[in-house]
TrEMBL record:
Transmembrane portions of the chain: 297-315
Domain L-type lectin-like: 31-255
Alphabetized Pfam families for the sequence: Lectin_leg-like
Keyword Metal-binding: yes
Keywords linked to the UniProt accession: Disulfide bond, Glycoprotein, Golgi apparatus, Lectin, Membrane, Metal-binding, Signal, Transmembrane, Transmembrane helix
GO cellular component labels: COPII-coated ER to Golgi transport vesicle; endoplasmic reticulum membrane; endoplasmic reticulum-Golgi intermediate compartment; Golgi membrane
Subcellular location(s) of the protein: Endomembrane system; Golgi apparatus membrane
InterPro entries (UniProt xref): ConA-like_dom_sf, Intracellular_Lectin-GPT, Lectin_leg, VIP36_lectin
GO molecular function: D-mannose binding; metal ion binding
Gene3D superfamilies to which the protein is assigned, alphabetical: 2.60.120.200
Main localization (coarse): membrane
UniProt protein name: L-type lectin-like domain-containing protein
Membrane protein topology class: Single-pass type I membrane protein; Single-pass membrane protein
Amino acid sequence: MEILLYLTFALFCWPIVTCNDEQSLEPGAEGFLKREHTLVRPFQGTVLVYAELWDFTGSTIVTGTHIRLTPDHQSKAGAIWNRIPCMLRNWEVLIHFKVHGNGVDLYGDGFAFWLTKGRNEMGKVFGSKDPFSGLAIFFDTYSNQNGEHAHVHPYVSAVVNNGSMSYDHDYDGTHIQIAGCSAPFRGREHDTFASIRFVNNRLTAKLDIDGNGEWRQCFDADEVFLPLGYFFGISAATGDLADNHDILTFKVFELPADETSDISDTALLNLVPHAKTAEAPRDKPVGVFQRKSMSTIFMFLILLIVCGGIVFFLVKRQQTNAKKRFY
Ligand SMILES: *[C@@H]1O[C@H](CO)[C@@H](O)[C@H](O)[C@H]1NC(C)=O
């Protein structure tokens, strides 16, 4: 009888509990690696090769295993900038990164991924120039502005700028953000990865930060317009608070287009970066991560009740049967 109960649970409940609604393709699975935009280990010994393709600026140091943009010290800024302009219409960037340090509650500031018109200029936005023209994705570990906006840090957010808007770091730049999510990527024991995709003017970010090899969506923004001929880069900065900001791999893939486009390369080279899905200022619901895990917990509770019900029913019947036999 006990075995029957377990079987019932296994047959009816387990497949539902473990069911995964995410069925999109694994990041990096279907593209062509573009070596001219890529940085992979080992870095030492290949420094001369990489020096043709990349600039290593500011506090950046290159070791055999990682590129450290900033050490865990105050007031540092470092960056890596690709020298080859990106001529890909549809691409994916895969970043293996590690943000860590001695700080337990106080650490910062984070790092930024860039695809911009200018390159290799130091400044106050995570160590890079402000304002910028192009795309930035901020991996912000420190909330500079407590109170008005409700999202939990660390926070990942995308900004598209045409070069006219200044990024307000004291307000975490939320007034020009197009999408974002809360994501605890800092100080993890395991490897942490980000995948950023741009296909047919759709910008999506996925994160693999829980050490279980699973990608979770951070944001998905449609109608994002980015020109050709911009440069990839990553920068990081520390202020009063510090952290090690390490890049272990930076890979760029060319992706096939979902649909053909009749816009010429010339038109795309002259495009002004813009995005239609700009979020209303200060309208910050809880990040996707929280919402998703809340619904997962809710689903789990319902299943627990259903399974509990089945088990209760079976036990009850067993007792009744036992009683019948007894008498
Ligand atoms: C740049 O963006 C700002 C703010 O959205 C807008 O007012 C301005 O017209 C834009 N400039 C160009 C050249 O598109």
